[in-house]
């Protein structure tokens, strides 16, 4: 029983398992990004239009701070959960129920304090789900299949944005109905994965002890590279709605965001699975990460120096193509530098801090840049620099080709 949970997987997973995991991940990413892209900006603008940029930065930073704490903690607890229902699914299910409740609570908030508290609770619950779902790949997928599976599992990260924005701009209207509709999907979409896929159990006596893991230099460099790329992502996307509204002067910025996200998603889907499979066949990961970072940096520079609508559309396509390669291959690379099998979810939770911490630091850097230090051109140059550094530093990882 415990032996399988702690062993490296050797049996390839089927399309059905991957599809259900994709569906569960879709719930998480819709929960994360739909509020950030549309609901929170609109809600905060209604409450305090004069200070919308700073307040959005504060609210998203607080939510990201909660993610930094909860993700590795939830992962560590799931690594050590012994029971008849397995060690991961119970946390995924509980997180989904509570995340849905938190989003419903957000729908009725009319003060910045209420919005901040609601978003912190939602982030905590969504990150509980993310910690356990992220561990599914190293738990179940052999190394020579991880690039392809990571590519499919990564698609919801952007597809969730598209579907979420469509949901709250075209299917339902208004901030409160948007939150409620989103909450329903966050609860329902993970259920097939929870109830229809196996979850390895461990015996109580086999629980790994709680202790600080000694991370290898390769793991540390993997964390740094992920952090820098995600910092670039945070800098570049936080004020997208306001960038289109105030700099590009798009007449309907909500629709503009939707169009850019759709272009980005199509470009990502065109590259991610191909790159993941190619990386599996060649056994090489680093070269894909480097070139993807270069491509993403080019997209940021386009926005910095040519802030027009046609250029924004081109930049969205370039960014999507680059990130499609990055998210598939880097995710597979990270699973190959995890310290030990008994702590997969906890260690991936530490990696996920590299996804969440930039959401704290990003607003702290982006707000003064936009307001005091040169505006959007400087912001997108900083985005390019962070992304490029993150991709180049992958050369410091020695154990993965």
UniProtKB/TrEMBL annotation:
SUPFAM superfamilies cross-referenced by the UniProt entry: MFS general substrate transporter
Gene3D superfamilies with a match to the protein in the record: MFS general substrate transporter like domains
UniProtKB keywords: Membrane, Transmembrane, Transmembrane helix
InterPro entries per UniProt: MFS (IPR011701), MFS_dom (IPR020846), MFS_trans_sf (IPR036259)
Bilayer disposition of the protein: Multi-pass membrane protein
UniProt cross-references to Pfam families, sorted A to Z: MFS_1 (PF07690)
Domain spans labelled Major facilitator superfamily (MFS) profile: 218-401
Cell compartment(s), UniProt: Cell membrane
Keyword Transmembrane recorded: yes
Bilayer-crossing regions: 12-34, 54-77, 89-107, 113-137, 149-172, 178-198, 219-244, 256-275, 287-306, 312-338, 350-372, 378-397
Keyword Metal-binding: no
Location, primary (coarse class): membrane
Record-linked PANTHER family: MAJOR FACILITATOR SUPERFAMILY (MFS) PROFILE DOMAIN-CONTAINING PROTEIN, PTHR23528
Protein name per the record: MFS transporter
Organism: Dactylosporangium salmoneum
